Amino acid sequence: xxxxxxxxxxxxxxxTITLPKVTASVNSMDLLGKVIILDSGHGGVDAGATGNQIxxxxxxxILTRKLEKELVSRGATVYLTREDDxxxxxxxxxxxxxxxxxxxxxxxxxxxxxxxxxxxxxGLQVFYTTKNEENKLIAETITNHLKESISNVRExxxxxxxxxxxxxxxxxxxxxxxxxxxxxxxxxxxxxxxQDKLISSISDSIEIYFQKK
Length: 213
Fold this sequence. Notes:
Elements: H1 2-18, E1 35-40, E2 50-51, E3 54-55, H2 56-73, E4 77-80, H3 95-110, E5 114-119, E6 124-128, H4 135-146, E7 157-158, E8 172-177, H5 183-189, H6 192-212
Parallel strand pairs: 1-4, 1-5, 5-8, 6-7
Antiparallel strand pairs: 2-3, 6-8
Helix pairs in contact: 2-6, 4-6
């Protein structure tokens, strides 16, 4: 009887090692523990640029919401500076400056691992300031990865003139998604497949940046 039991065990073992391996497909959680703030430019009375069937404040929020969903699916904790059509101004005098100051104040209060500001009026380009030494690396990482899947990507640009970014201590960048006034860019920015490709590429590049850390 013991011989039969041993034979059965040997057969079971041989069958097991010859079976194809099956792996479960799960969502990537590479951003687990990372806190990211997404700042959707403009809002409320500040519509931003308009043209070719696009209002910048609306497009910014659409892209921000898509990016939020993608980053959360990868494990990140995501905060938004605005979740609907409004700005962050607390005064009607110097409203724009108040809005920008309160965005910076909110980001500093959360103190995220990264912030991303989304805007749409100067072509697909990433801007950074020297306020934080990590900003240039973030800009380079995002830009280099975008170039692998999107053709109209410009080189990164340093710009220390922005009022808002002078007050933010956390690392981050401004991503300009495209020229609203350009018919080709406008067509792409209204295309869901292009939006999804852009969001996926940005999310991948954020993962790549943190993998380098």
